[in-house]
Amino acid sequence: MGAEAEHSNQVEQTSNVATPDTVEAMLEAARYDDIDDIISLASAGVSLDSKDSQGRTALHMAAANGHLAIVEYLISNGVDLNALNVEKNTPLHWACLNGHIEVVKKLILAGANVTILNSYERTPMDEAVSRGKMEFVDAINEAVAQVELNGITVS
After folding, report:
1. Cys staple from 124: which of 92, 119, 137, 141, with CB 3.0 to 4.6 Å?
2. How many helices (H) and strands (E) are present in the chain, helices listed first?
3. In the chain, where are the structural domains located?
4. Residues near 102 by Cβ (< 8 Å), separated by ≥ 6?
5. pLDDT digit of tens for each residue in the chain (155 aa)?
6. Start-end of the ANK repeats (predicted)?
7. What is the fold, at CATH topology level, of the domain defined by 2-150?
8. Rg (the chain; Cα; Å)
9. Which CA distances in Å does 38 have to 23, 45, 46, 154?
C-alpha cells in the first residue's frame, strides 16, 4: 500500500502542475525577465503555453515588456506564437502596442501572423500606427519580406 499511495501522490502532483498559482508564476517570470524561474517551472511540468484567466501567456508578457531573450527561449521551445488573449490580442499585438521593435521582428521571423484581428478589429500593425509608432510599418514590412524570401527554395 505504501508504494501505491506514493504513486497516487505523484500522479496527483503531476496533474495539478498547471494551477492558477503556477500559471501566474510563469507569467510573472516572463513579465519580469526571470528566465531561471521560467526554466524551473517548465522543468516542473508547467506548460510554456499556459494561460491565465485573461488568456495571457508567458509569450504575451515577455513580448509586452520587450524581454527578447525570454521571447527567443519561448520560441525555441515551440510556444504558440499566435495565442489569443480574451481581447484576441496576440503577443505580436502587445509588442507593437508597447513599442518593442526587436521583439516584433523576432516574432514575425519566427512565424507570427501579422494579419490577425483583435476584438477592436486591428492588426498588430494597426495597433502600432494607432500609438504613433510609424517606424514599425517599415520594420514589419521588412520582416514579412524576409520571411517570404526565406520561403523561396532554389532547385
Report:
1. 92
2. 9, 0
3. 2-150
4. 66, 68
5. 444 444 333 333 444 578 999 999 999 999 999 999 999 999 999 999 999 999 999 999 999 999 999 999 999 999 999 999 999 999 999 999 999 999 999 999 999 999 999 999 999 999 999 888 888 888 898 898 888 888 754 43
6. 54-86, 87-119
7. 1.25.40
8. 18
9. 10, 11, 9, 39
